[in-house]
């Protein structure tokens, strides 16, 4: 009997890379005739796009995969797939293979384009596990079902060559490959034609974009600054963002480019990780606290009003109280607009996981609480300076909590809420006066006309 499977749900964990991969997976499924299902409960195919950057990301994915056993009992024709970063790790995929017999399909980060064929085999009754250890050439032209029409992620590089000692990414995403400028610009152009106004350029280290690409007539390969100028010239795009930056590779030329390109937003996500030179060295980050701070000052000199956000980790092996205090000092000096804080999580196969002097859990917890307190109070102070200012805000849509309230983002990537006095659609640019800045969100009112825009 032929089974009619019609709807699919892609569940995403982890970073924007995965969100973008999920759009490709849903695009492929749609080209095979599947509609997007609003929930896993009614789906005929569920695909989990997984992350293994920290242990808790893994646990959540395993929890979700475990729950599909129940769905499968209810609907034996349900196809359950797992892909993404966890699938690249042989230990984790073997765990799924051995302990989760109801999972029908496992594929990796390098062979998403093979999904149609893999699914065909699953439909004919086979359990399919296909993961490639190495990526092939960058595959262009795959379909994508974009999550939004007004904004989009655009990959500029895949993979990572940095090998920070704590990080699993280079092992699960492979060596760094750049897309050509022509391909990136063509994608941005097509997005603009279909009504997209904001693009976020994605790479594990956007600042190393272009390495290994064929030289231009000038004799050198293009770099990230060159790419920013090109993308800036695409008509119809209003805002350009990028993530993630690597402080080591962020050149003055790139700061200048970000400053001169009118569409490039005044927001820089610069993962610090630690403020201690000793720890930064053990992490293999390639910069010192002083150098990092120099970059922060350079950005703020060239681009007044720029916001700077960061990632910080506590409890890296061997981190002492003095090292931790150096991190706290950096938070005070850099005055971050926001920071994502993490407890170091040993990742099997990485250099740091094998280091002696792993920090005890209670010490890690004590440090993260102190760090979060400081980060919140600094962010609160920084945001407080916006009281009364008028900012250009891109409408995202109604707020999740209260649909009479609209949400949007400033160019500096701050979330703003205001009571809707007029209808707006996602992607509209409006002016909002900030009345009540809080640590994570700004509350304001729409300004209909007049008023100086500060950024
Ligand atoms: N443990 C904790 N946090 C980590 N990150 C990366 N690897 C680990 C790890 N093993 C954090 C870094 C990175 C962010 C995406 O996740 O701060 O910038
Ligand atoms: Fe993204 Fe890294 Fe998680 Fe993979 S492991 S999804 S690259 S954060």
Largest sheet: number of strands, sense, barrel closure = 6 strands, parallel
The amount of beta strand, in percent, is: 15-25%
Widest sheet: strand ordering: 2-1-3-4-5-6
**Distinct compounds present:** 5'-deoxyadenosine, iron/sulfur cluster
Secondary structure category? alpha/beta
Q: What is the strand tally?
A: 19
Q: What shape does the CA trace take?
A: globular
Percent of residues in helices comes to 25-40%
Total count of helical runs of at least 4 residues: 13
Distance between the termini: 63 Å
| Unreliable stretches covering 5 or more consecutive residues | none
Radius of gyration: 23 Å
The average pLDDT value, as a whole number, equals 96
Keywords:
single chain; 455 residues; alpha/beta; six-stranded parallel sheet; five-stranded mixed β-barrel; 13 helices; 21% strand; binds 5'-deoxyadenosine; binds iron/sulfur cluster
Q: Mind explaining what this structure looks like?
A:
With 455 residues, the chain is α/β, with parallel strands linked by helices. 34% of the residues lie in helices and 21% in strands. It is built from 13 helices and 19 strands. The chain has a six-stranded parallel beta sheet with strand order 2-1-3-4-5-6, sandwiched between helices. The protein has a five-stranded mixed barrel with strand order 15-16-17-19-18. Strand 1, helix 1 and strand 2 form a beta-alpha-beta unit. The protein is globular, with a radius of gyration of 23 Å. The mean pLDDT is 96. Bound molecules: 5'-deoxyadenosine (5AD) and iron/sulfur cluster. 5'-deoxyadenosine (5AD) binds next to strand 13.
């Amino acid at each position: 009997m032929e089974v009619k499977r019609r709807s699919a749900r892609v569940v995403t964990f982890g970073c924007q890379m995965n969100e973008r991969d999920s759009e490709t997976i849903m695009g492929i499924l749609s080209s095979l005739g599947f509609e997007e299902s609003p929930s896993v409960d009614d789906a005929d195919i569920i695909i989990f796009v997984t992350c293994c950057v920290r242990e808790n990301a893994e646990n959540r994915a395993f929890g979700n995969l475990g729950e599909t056993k129940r769905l499968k009992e209810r609907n034996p024709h349900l196809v359950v797939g797992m892909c993404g970063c966890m699938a690249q790790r042989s230990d984790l995929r073997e765990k799924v293979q051995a302990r989760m017999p109801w999972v029908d399909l496992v594929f990796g980060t390098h062979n998403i384009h093979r999904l149609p064929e893999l699914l065909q085999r699953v439909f004919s009754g086979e359990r399919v596990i296909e993961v490639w250890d190495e990526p092939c050439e960058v595959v262009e032209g795959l379909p994508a079902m974009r999550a939004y029409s007004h904004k989009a992620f655009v990959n500029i590089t895949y993979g990572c060559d940095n090998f920070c000692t704590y990080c699993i990414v280079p092992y699960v995403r492979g060596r760094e490959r750049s897309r050509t400028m022509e391909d990136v610009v063509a994608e941005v152009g097509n997005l603009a034609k279909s009504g997209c106004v904001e693009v976020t350029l994605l790479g594990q280290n956007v600042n190393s974009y272009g390495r290994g690409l064929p030289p231009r007539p000038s004799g050198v390969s293009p770099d990230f600054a060159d790419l920013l100028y090109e993308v800036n010239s695409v008509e119809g795009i209003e805002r350009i963002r990028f993530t993630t930056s690597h402080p080591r590779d962020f050149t003055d030329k790139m700061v200048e480019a970000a400053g001169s390109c009118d569409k490039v937003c005044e927001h820089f996500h610069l993962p610090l990780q630690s403020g201690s030179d000793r720890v930064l060295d053990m992490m293999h980050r390639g910069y010192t606290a002083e150098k990092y701070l120099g970059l922060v000052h350079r950005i703020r000199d060239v681009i007044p009003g720029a916001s700077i956000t960061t990632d910080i980790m506590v409890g890296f092996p061997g981190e002492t109280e003095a090292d931790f205090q150096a991190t706290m000092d950096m938070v005070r000096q850099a005055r971050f607009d926001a920071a994502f804080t993490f407890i170091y999580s040993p990742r099997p196969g990485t250099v740091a996981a094998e280091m002696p002097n792993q920090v005890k859990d209670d010490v890690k917890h004590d440090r993260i609480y102190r760090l979060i307190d400081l980060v919140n109070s600094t962010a609160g102070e920084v945001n407080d300076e916006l009281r009364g200012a008028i900012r250009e805000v891109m409408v995202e849509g109604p707020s999740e909590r209260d649909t009479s309230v609209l949400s949007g983002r400033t160019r500096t990537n701050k979330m703003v809420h205001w009571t809707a006095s007029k209808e707006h659609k996602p992607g509209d640019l409006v002016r909002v006066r900030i009345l009540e800045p809080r640590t994570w969100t700004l509350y304001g009112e729409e300004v209909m006309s007049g008023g100086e825009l500060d950024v």
